Amino acid sequence: MIVNLQNLQFMLAQDTFDIAIIGGGIIGTAHAYEAARRGLKVAVFERHPRPVGATVRNFGMIWPIGQAATTFERAMRSRATWLILAREANFWAKPCGSLHLAYHNDELDVMNEFIQTTRSVGYQVEIWSPEKTVAKSKTVNPIGLKGAMWSATEVNIDPREATEKLQQYLRQVWNVTFFYQTAIVHVDYPYLSGGAKTWKANHIIVCSGADFETLYPQIYAEQPITKCKLQMLRTVPQENNVQLGPNLAAGLTLQHYASFAHCKSLVRLKTRFARDMAEYNKWGIHVLLSQTHSGELTIGDSHEYGLSVNPFDRADINTLILNYLQRFAKIQNPSIQETWHGVYAKLQNGATSLVLHPTNGVTIVNGVGGAGMTLSFGLADEVAEIIGMDKPSVNLV
Ligand SMILES: Cc1cc2nc3c(=O)[nH]c(=O)nc-3n(C[C@H](O)[C@H](O)[C@H](O)COP(=O)(O)OP(=O)(O)OC[C@H]3O[C@@H](n4cnc5c(N)ncnc54)[C@H](O)[C@@H]3O)c2cc1C
Question: How many separate domains does the chain show?
Fold first, then answer.
């Protein structure tokens, strides 16, 4: 980089940071928190006036039950941090747990096998009778219900509210500087620049989500990474304060998450779905249901993979999602008030995160796929150790 007079502005103290983070989604935000609580001077650079990526488009489910044994502990550390931050930053978080509902014997078989084979991991799971299940959530469809797997560890937040309040809290309490409407287009360590401005940092962390094109495109081109598009729906608030209780899932979800992938009984279930629900498999659909603090129900989702993301949402995918939902949930007011899609970066080799050091002083953190909310704080804490940030000056309690 040529350092001319204009570029010398980075020498001003306000343009120099210990840690500069590119990307204001949850991965960038979690790294900002982990760096700030270690006493570092932190800046976050976000392209948009506020985050509008995967981080505000998801369910807001902190979902340890979906994590394989290898990342369950990371998810549980994140969960603990989410609950602390909800109190400190004053956003809604509900430790509601989850129910995986079984309407076929092969679904119950997978749940039983999962419990038997993972006793040492720490999942807080048990099989419930249909009666106990329906007593927990009046929304569960009792017709044909054979039982359910209760998991105690899931937490709901509203990602739109939580992201805004988290960033406000980081600004006010931890003095993190947020540069919104600031796309970083060039990194030449220790400098980063966007528009006509340049900043300097001791360490630069790139958390740019599904944007593989702007920074380090050559690095991304060498990685087994792609994009995944998901379609989502949200109902109007349910009347009379009707509470969903736990998040709900059903058979299709068992073939989606890594936690169940080792179960031998999955083969029979997958064979049935391949035969009877080919359209669901084609669009990568499994169906989850959660509720916001305002009483709306969030419903999703589909999974379409590829670097070229179709900008147009398919009505038939939404219909498939709603049809499957009806099998396991009785929704009081199913009027849909919003539909949208989100896109995340997905590793194709089964890994749950990508942490790279393209040059001295620069770290890329990405590839958290469909579990970024669940893994964010645990991962950021580990990355902080990897890149040699000191232990936190303030400990989590
Ligand atoms: C529909 C949907 C449902 C999901 N549900 C869940 C769930 O319930 N639970 C869960 O754990 N996970 C869920 N996920 C996954 C989770 O949302 C993602 O893993 C997570 O949000 C990824 O965070 P991120 O910070 O990497 O990416 P993003 O949220 O996309 O943030 C990246 C940010 O970087 C900014 N940026 C990029 N390049 C630059 C640049 N050069 N300069 C400045 N800014 C830049 C972008 O504007 C963006 O704001 C879901 C995802 C989707 C799409």
Answer: 2
